[in-house]
Every structure is written in C-alpha cells, then in structure tokens.
Amino acid sequence: MESHLDYHAHNNGLREVNTLFKVLFAISTMLICVASPSPFLPLFVFMLVPMLLVFLAKIPYKFYLRFISAPFLFAFITFLYMSLFFGTGELWIHLGSIGPLNLAIYGDGIQLGFLVFSRMLGAFSCLVFLAFTTPMTELFSMMHTIRIPAIMVELAMLMYRFIFLFLDEAGKMHHAQKTRLGYSDWRSCLRCGGMLAGNLFIRTWFQGEKLHIAMESRGYNGNLKTMKKIKYPGSLSIILLISFEILLLAGIYMTMNIQII
Amino acid sequence: MNVIETREITYQYPDGTLALKNVNFRASKGMMVALLGPNGAGKSTLFLHFNGILRPTSGEVRVEDRPLGYKKEDLMKVRQKVGIVFQNPDDQLFAPTVMEDVAFGPLNMGLDLEEVEKRVKDALGKVGMAGYEKKPPHHLSGGQKKRVAIAGILAMQPEIMVLDEPTSGLDPKGASQILRILYQLNQEGMSIVISTHDVDLVPLYASQVYIINEGSIIKEGTPHEVFSDVKTIRSANLRLPRIAHLMEILEKEDSLPFDKPYPLTIGEARRKILESFKD
Questions:
Q1: Which residues of B, range 68-97, sit inside 8 Å of A by Cβ?
Q2: Is the pTM of this model over 0.90?
Q3: For the sheet containing B18-28, what is the strand order?
Q4: In this predicted complex, what is the ipTM?
C-alpha cells in the first residue's frame, strides 16, 4: 500500500498546494526542458525535482530512486546509441570495427546524445513531480477546466478507477493459480498467463455490464457530470512561477554554446 | 400506501429460463421488508424490476400505486424514487473520489451544485463517513465502501431503498454497522427492502418477510408467521434462526416446555426462559 504511487499522490507534503499551480509549473518547465538547446538546464531540473520531492513533499528517496531508475536506464541507452550511431565530423574515439560495422564515437554524436538524454530526464522529472504530488482526481477536474473533451476525461476517470479493480482481480487470480501449482515451469507460465489474461478480459466485460446497470439505477443518461470547482493560484505564486521559468530560459541562453567535450 | 408492488410478474431470460414466476410482492411505506431466499432464487432479478432496469415478461410493477412507465422520463423519475444498493460495492462505486461518487445521482437529477453538496454532506454524515470526501474508493475497507454506496443512494433522497445482500462479505462489526444505519433510516421513515440469507438478523429488523425460492414467493408474513412454518423454511435451503433452532431442540429432544412460536431473537428467548423459570 505504502509503496504505491497513488498513495503518495494522496499523502505528501505538497498535496495542499494549488493544483493549477503544480500543473502550470510542471507543464511549462517540461516544455522548456524539451525545447532547450542546452543540456545543462534540463539536468538542473532533473536534480531540482528530487530535492522538491524529498524535502518538501516528503517522498521517501528510495521510492523515488526506484521510480526514476527505469526512465534513467532508458535515457542512458538512448545516449549510448546516439553517441555510437550519430554524428559525423571530428572522430573522437575509434572502438574498432565488427565486419562492416564501424564502431566509432564522434564528438557531435556525444553532444546530441547528451542533449537528448538530458531533455528526456528533465521532462520526465516534471511529469514525476506532478504524479507524486497531485492525485489523479484533481488532474481530472483540471482537464475539465482546460476544456479537454468530456468523453476523454470520462474515459480517463473510469480507466483510473478500474486499474485498481483490475490489479486486485488479477492478483487474486494469480494467487489462486499459484495455490494450485501454476507457474511451476515456463510452459505452465505461458498457459497460466494466457488463462489469466483471458479470464480477466471476460470478467472485465461482466464488470462493465454490472457497472452500467448500477449507473443507470442512479439516473445515468450518457454523460458524466462532475462537480468542477477550480481554485486559482494567488498572484504571488504566479509571479514566482514566471520568474522561475524566466531564470530557466536565461540559464539556457547563457549555457547554450558550451560544449561538453 | 405501497411504495413498491409487483402483480403477478413473470420474467423470462432471453435463453428461455424462467427467473420469476407470478411474483406478488408488496412493500408499504415506512416498512422494513426482508426478501429471504437461497442463492439463485431470483432475488436480484426481482430487484432489477423495481426500478425498471428489467421489464417483466408479463404482469405489472407499480411504484407508489401507479404502474411503472418505461419511457425515458418516467424511468428517470422512478430511479430517483427507488434507490438500489448493489451487493458488491465495487460494481457501484466508479468515481475517483467518495465525494464525486455520492454526487453522481444528485447531479444526474439536475440539481444545482449547492444542493448537491448539501446532500452529499448529509448522506455521508448519515452513514458515518463524513471526512472521507476526498478519498478514492480503493483506499476504503469493504464496510466503508458499502456505506459510501448507501450514501450514494441516500443522496438522491429516494422514497424506498432496496439493498441486495447488504451484509454479505462484511465482518460482524461492519455488518452490524450497516444494519444499524438501515434501522436508523427506517426509524426516520425510510421504506427499506433488503434481500439476505442471514436468518439470524431478519427477525431483529424486518417487519415483513417474503421467502422466495426458484423464482416464486413461497411464503410471506411477519417473522413469527414465516419462521413458524419450519418445513417451508427448510425446503428453501434456509434454516431457523439459531435461537429458534435451540428452542426447537430443547422442546423436541429434551421435552422442555418451550412450545411454538419459538422465540427468534436473543431478547425474546431471554423473556421466555425467565418466564418458565418463574413458574
């Protein structure tokens, strides 16, 4: 329970900070990261976010590290690939060749790879910030306010609710299968996995039908109405936010011509 | 006045199975009616007729002494009047927070936000879940989910609440909390129909009992009338309340002077035992 992203989103030090403020912070910083021509500022964001999460939001750092490790690995692989296969110009290191394949690292390949690496991590950090500090439920009402089509918000809401039922159900079936010695070798793993997936599909189907009956019983007529009420952040926090983003942009401007090698 | 009445309704599933056979059921205003029956007897199917989700193959459903209409506007009205709480709260709770889930019905009724908020607050207060407004349903326990599901129906201010197995799957404390809430609501004038196979609880709360088996009502009356017909009770895969069963054994096996009607609750048994000791 406590190692659950959803748990942290509901119980963290930044929970009560205005949602719109958090969303604006995350989105604008993310856009700047993705568009940044300099690798340093996104890396700065990548360093800043864990500080905010661990010290202000009181998220356990181990949980954060575990969470970020997957995208970090992914970004790192991207970096390796790009430095190996991109770039022309000045040869930096020649690693030798395998048959027709020439393994060489070029200076601008590294440059480009590093930029992509930092953009990915910077932007992802912004999303992680949002995911860790803001419950999905508040994001839904936010989506409503910024006029995302109702049908998409409704689908997202139902999906969010059903993820947990789905996990529950899958977990129960998994236990039931293991109790009767399922998953004992790779063959039975395949078979059990297949049965679980198939059964889950059928159950979901029935669940959907039951939900529909329950919703109809409460007067559902095709569109979900939600209680949208949105609180706007104070002007001070807006000014703070804008200054922060301007500083980021200034930082980018100053570092955009620095070469890392 | 009968809030809900069915006259000779029969329902046949598309595959031809006869799920209900000439069912006559009445729930009068302010009463707590229990529908007792084994699994698969047709309890849930009958309930789905009460708010027009299912339409009887023959016969008539009446709500507040008027035939139920199956036009869209009529159904909206009926579903506000007849609130059904489903057996598994996970089938019913779908919104991301407790607040939004309870608000779902009132919002569908087209009430304004202020009124909706007031009703949500009232309803959650009545089921003892005030303070949980912002929680997502998957962070609640089974009993809490059930209470939120009840609040979701209460917030629509129905004339009658219909609950399918309200205590199934709950621990004893959770179950008695639910029953206490229902008892309280009933005291305040809410008409209630519950389906259950918990025969020990029925005599405590219900004023009228129906027994359904294989799609037919086989017995109706007060708890004492129904449970005095031991043969019918057993033929429907049900049993006497434990206390009544004990009294039956004491009378038949040990020839103690406890004759029919057997007491159904601990309170009644206590009185009876004290009386016979005095003699």
A1: 72, 76, 79-80, 83-84, 86, 88, 90-97
A2: no
A3: B18-28, B2-12, B58-63, B66-67
A4: 0.77
